[in-house]
Specification:
alpha+beta; 10 strands; six-stranded mixed beta sheet; about 110 residues
């Protein structure tokens, strides 16, 4: 009985670890102006962001157009209060380097 209970607990723990390791996370972000991530171009607007490391899919809410990109997904030490988009301006276009999602510890970095 004791061995059977221990086996059940181990199986549940392994199942939980598998679930959390493969869990996708979805966020919403708004780009206030036309932007680029790598060579992909994005119009100003709202996007749904599906994070499934190392892949990140950005889907424009209005059109449903989706782009999948490679990104480095990290867990920060503390949550950020609101969405943050870190970018630099290259030839008059905002080149996004990093996105942090408000209310979470998730940070995605693009090369």
């Amino acid at each position: 009985m004791k061995t059977q209970m221990m086996s059940t607990l181990i199986l549940l723990a392994l199942g939980f670890l598998t679930f959390t390791a493969s869990a996708e996370q979805t966020f919403q972000i708004t780009f206030s102006s036309a932007s680029k991530i790598g060579s992909a171009q994005f119009q100003a607007g709202q996007y749904k962001v599906l994070v499934d490391a190392p892949k990140v899919a950005l889907t424009e809410v209005r059109s449903g157009k989706s782009v999948e990109l490679e990104a480095k997904v990290e867990t920060m030490d503390e949550k950020v209060a609101s969405n943050e988009v870190h970018s630099t301006t290259v030839d008059g276009i905002s080149q996004i380097n990093e996105i942090r999602f408000g209310g979470s510890k998730i940070k995605i970095t693009f090369d």
